[in-house]
Amino acid sequence: MALQGALHICTSPARWEKSDWLMAGAVGGVTAGSAALDADVRRIMQRNQGTANGLAEAARIYGEQWIAIGVTAGLYGAGTVFRDSWLRETAVLTGTALIVSSAATAIIKRVVGRARPYLNAGNGTFTLFSFDDDYNSFPSGHTVAAFSLSAVLASRIDHPVATIVLYGAACLTGLSRMYTDEHWFSDVVFGGLFASAIGRSLVLWHEGRQADQQSFRIIPTPNRICVIYTF
User: Which CATH number does the domain 2-230 belong to among 3.40.720, 3.30.710, 3.30.70, 1.20.144?
Assistant: First the structure.
């Protein structure tokens, strides 16, 4: 399932319809618009340095990849012990979202080569195809990891409280990266939108696949009624 899901996400642009392209354009537009606020948001964060160091550190940890890996392993382990297919499927979807989004993020970072805020070079400084971490600002990797985890879990749990808590935690991760002057506002905005789209798309694909593969059909005949279960 993991390989199929990864292939589905990676090849999805070839199947996009007009609405999908409009959505992609909207993400680009929102990212560009948020870039206009980069300097202002950075000034606000710098004015508040030292007021929330502990919270920022805790929020950053939620965006560490090892946290997402640990959650994925924990879910799969619990699903195996308790023979719960929902937990195992959720674990696979979470792991797949993390792998796909992280791989794409690593490529984008190095291709774009955006200077990090602490260099004081401005949000429009780019060194294309850079492997220098000082020029790997766009997008925020911690934000991508946090939103990948939250998007899948929120979609699978499908409860308002869980959605608020999970996306709230991911937003705090993004804020922590700006607070420590590691990322611009637009780095975080794009990372959140990008990872959320991947996570939600994976869950929708999985649920659609299940609907296609599993179904009950009741077929009346002159002498009997047949119940057919397709899986």
Answer: 1.20.144
Interval 87-109: pLDDT, tens: 999 999 999 999 999 999 999 99
3-state secondary structure of 126: strand
The tokens describing 101, both together, are: 């989004």
The answer to whether the CB of 214 falls within 8 A of the CB of 162 is no
Closest CA to 35 of 195, 194, 142, 185: 185
Taking the model in full, what pTM does it have? Answer: 0.88
Rounded distance between C-alpha atoms, residue 191 and residue 114, angstroms: 14
Q: What are phi and psi of 140, to 5 degrees?
A: -75, 115
Phi, psi of 216 (to 5 degrees): -110, 135
pLDDT one-digit tens code per residue, 38-92: 999 999 999 998 888 999 999 999 999 899 999 999 999 999 999 999 999 999 9
DSSP 176-229: HHHHTTSS-HHHHHHHHHHHHHHHHHHHHHHHHHHHHH-EEEEEE-SS-EEEEE
